[in-house]
Amino acid sequence: LVKDRATVTKAKVVFIAIAVLLLAVLPLVVKREGRVNLMILILLFATLAQSWNILGGYAGQINLGHAAFFGLGSLVARLLWMSGQPILPSLVAAAVVTVGFAMLIGVPAFRLRGIYFAIGTLALGEILNVTVGKAWPVVSALPGPYLVTYELVPRYYLFLVLALLTTAATYLLINSRLGFGIMAIREEEEAAESLGVSALRHKLLALSVSALFAGLAGGAFAYYHVSYYYQFPFSPMWTFDAMLITFIGGAGTIIGPIIGSVFYVAVKEILAVSLVEVHLIIFGILFILVVLFLPGGFVEAWERIQSAIARGPRLEALRALSGKEG
Amino acid sequence: MLEPIAQNLAFGILVGAIYGLAAMGLSLVFGVMKFLNVAHGELLMLGGYASFFIFTVYNVDPFLALPLTMLLLFVIGLALYRGLFIRVVKLAEEIKIKNSLLIGFGLSLVLQNVAVRLWTANERGITTSYSGLALTFLGVRLPLVRLGALTIAFVTLIALQLFLRRTYIGKAIRATVEDWEAASLMGINIHRVYLLSFALGSALAATAGTLVSVGYSIDPGMGLHWTLKALIVVVLGGLGSMVGTFAGGIMLGVAESVSAFVVGGTYREMVGLFIFILVLIFRPQGLFGER
């Protein structure tokens, strides 16, 4: 458990401050729309993956229906925004509806344990996916007046704020008493309960926070994307992307989903030009390898390298010592 | 008034037999190894494509080529178990369930996109010379290929049942389902049972995939849909009995077609999913299962 607690050193604070500053001034320097769009994608996936990570990585509950939250947020925000509401109240409404939905399904869903929770949420996600596909079988395209005022930079800042908010909230939650409870449930549910940690309440909390940020990410997507089928954000693809990114980066770590997202978007972009499906094949294989051999993802790989470097000189010293003795 | 209902019921039973067959493979693997292979739908897809290419390239009837298709997927199953799932079965219970789920998910992603890459995302189906023919019985139209599929499904069920009850290795499989530790102490080679069950499950998926490609249509993205169907059926039928699983398949098919009649075809997919969630929550052992 101690390992999960991300420690903040002075160097890290400086590093984070510089990174945030760079991200904040980025649209002033980078003028090419394609680049800004890529950054938006990275921020979107970082938010979505982090929101999956809260429940999947920290609470250990594999949610295969995460797209339902993303989709619900996008649907509510899009409908309100297109009906003439300003975007911020629309986002708030999207968050409220998504969290409300999460609370509603939470109690019955957590009657299911382990793999049953996973397949139950998979079915739930498909129910929403099919329902929305039947109820709104059309493309949602922004009307003329919206297109005239459409600007990329405000969208970029919305996604940036959202990604920072999600990351900060996850950090604070995980380092709180409640966060320890959530991780304790992941490690051993019975033992946690015997120490007075209510499994259901902590799981519900993790689910709600997870749904909140997924819903907000969906809302921001609705504000960003010019035209798409209403059903599109409900596609199971969004769940799978979030899972892949989280696991490849490092599930149950704060930085994992961020690293994973950068890697994911970069590789996708490099391969997208010539080989459309190949990036998913590569990610699928990478994902399997990570699950089998490197359960901590890139974060664990980095830690291993670091500790190997740290051990290096000591080994040298030991050898030197033993040399003297012998 | 009565005829459309009968027609609907007939179609429900015909498609339900394929659901049952798809679920039998999943159920076998789950029963023996206690993990769910979420890439089962992709194995079914591979079986469908194998039949499709055997038919279009070599012009062999898909029903006659069935043993070959099954053998092909049997071998693929062997390889997948040897390469991937063998690393999971030795793990402790909880982590085994989780990791196998994740590996199955990664595998389905890989297989699906390899299929798109190799064979494009187009929908395909096998059209034999007798594809348009149908029997009419009391005003109910029964397409010949779907009747053939029903027959194959029944034959497979009976053959599997005989295999599991009469042969040594079949009995070993059933013993492992009951209690692998005891089975292992009785001198059963558990790892051979695992290997064989997984390959057999893949071969069963190939059968279902063939029937889908003949009576309906296949495409690289069909896996998730069929995995869900098989999961629903397994949960409906409960574990442990192949007959129960098969009955669960027929039930799902009938429930879907009846609901298509009552609430309209658009929501037929939802019915199965709803039943699935309700059964999961209130009767996790399945409608026919015992605990």
Describe, in plain words, how this protein is organized in 3D:
The complex is a heterodimer of chains A (326) and B (291). With 326 residues, chain A is mainly alpha-helical. Helix content of chain A is 78%, strand content 2%. Chain A contains 14 helices and 2 strands; from the N terminus they run αααααβαααααβαααα. Chain A has helices at residues 10-29, 33-58, 67-82, 87-109, 115-135, 144-148, 152-174, 177-187, 189-194, 199-224, 236-249, 256-272, 278-293, 297-325, and strands at 139-141, 227-229. Chain A has a two-stranded antiparallel sheet. The two termini of chain A are 42 Å apart. Mean pLDDT of chain A is 88; it is low at 1-5. By secondary structure, chain B is mostly helical. Chain B has 11 helices and 2 strands; from the N terminus they run H-H-H-H-E-E-H-H-H-H-H-H-H. Chain B has helices at residues 2-33, 40-58, 66-89, 93-119, 144-166, 168-178, 180-185, 190-215, 223-237, 242-263, 268-282; strands at residues 134-137, 140-143. Chain B has a two-stranded antiparallel ribbon. In chain B, a hairpin with a 2-residue loop joins strand 1 and strand 2 (140-143). Chain B is globular, with a radius of gyration of 19 Å. The mean pLDDT of chain B is 87. At the A-B interface, helix 5, helix 11 and helix 13 of A face helix 4, helix 9 and helix 11 of B.
